[in-house]
Every structure is written in structure tokens, then in C-alpha cells.
């Protein structure tokens, strides 16, 4: 029985050391690999259990393994899509101009089909000239 317990502890140490070495900085809570390995080797049971608890905390999803690239995902909802929001704002401004009978007050042309390169739509109340 005593030998089985020692074998389990050694297996736990080996598993957690390999897991620490293969982890990224985000999973290690910003600590260096050497510090985690030293903690696990010096305090085998406490260090290994602590690593397993820190590594498996809810709310943090582990990223892809080494060598795997992630592809940026498209927005899941229309209100997450900057191009959709830009078009919606242009349509709202066009309706306001048509309803009010006033001339164009916006610095952006609503008939322009291309969205701005980056950033939020221009604010018509902002007196700062652009370009």
C-alpha cells in the first residue's frame, strides 16, 4: 500500500511538471515555469494540487495547443459588426435629413457605399474638421 501511494505521488508530480512545461503564461497566472516546477518538486502534493486547481479554474478556457493558429471569427450578432453599425448610423442620418428638410449636416456622405477604414462613425456635432 505504501509503495502504491508513493507511485501515485510520483505520477502526479510527473504529470503536473509536464503540464506546467507545456502551458502558456496565461494559464500559469503570469508566473514563470521554473517557479511552478520548483513549487511542485519542493512541495509535491500541495504544489501539484495547487497547479491542478489553478490550471482548471472556471471562467478561463485554455487556448489551442502549441502550433495551432486561431482564425478570427466574424461577429456573432449584427450589433457586434462595425460595418453594420456604420451603415445603420448612415441610414439614421439620411432619414433625419429627409424628415427635417435640412441640407447635409454630416461630414460623411450617406450615399458612399464604403465604410470608414477604422473607428466609429464621425460625429456630426463635432466641429473639428477632418482630413
Which structural category do the helix and sheet elements fall into? mainly alpha
The residue ranges in which pLDDT falls below 50 over 5 or more consecutive positions are none
Helical residue percent band: 40-55%
Inertia-based shape: rod-shaped
Report the C-alpha radius of gyration, rounded.
28 Å
How confident overall, as mean pLDDT? Answer: 76
Count of runs of 4 or more consecutive helical residues: 4
Number of domains: 2
Subcellular location: Cell membrane
Protein name: Cardiolipin synthase N-terminal domain-containing protein
Keywords: Cell membrane, Membrane, Transmembrane, Transmembrane helix
Membrane topology: Multi-pass membrane protein
Task: Detail the topology: elements first, then pairings.
Blueprint: H1 2-22, H2 33-42, H3 44-55, H4 82-100
Main location: membrane
Protein name: Cardiolipin synthase N-terminal domain-containing protein
Domain Cardiolipin synthase N-terminal: 12-56
Amino acid at each position: 500500500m505504501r509503495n502504491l501511494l508513493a507511485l501515485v505521488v510520483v505520477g502526479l508530480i510527473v504529470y503536473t511538471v509536464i503540464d506546467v512545461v507545456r502551458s502558456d503564461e496565461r494559464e500559469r497566472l503570469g508566473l514563470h515555469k521554473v517557479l511552478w516546477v520548483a513549487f511542485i518538486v519542493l512541495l509535491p502534493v500541495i504544489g501539484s494540487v495547487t497547479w491542478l486547481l489553478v490550471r482548471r479554474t472556471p471562467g478561463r478556457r485554455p487556448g489551442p495547443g502549441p502550433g495551432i493558429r486561431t482564425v478570427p471569427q466574424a461577429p456573432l450578432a449584427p450589433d457586434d459588426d462595425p460595418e453594420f453599425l456604420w451603415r445603420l448610423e448612415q441610414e439614421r442620418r439620411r432619414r433625419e435629413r429627409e424628415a427635417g428638410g435640412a441640407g447635409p449636416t454630416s461630414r460623411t456622405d450617406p450615399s458612399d457605399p464604403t465604410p470608414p477604414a477604422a473607428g466609429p462613425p464621425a460625429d456630426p456635432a463635432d466641429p473639428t474638421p477632418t482630413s
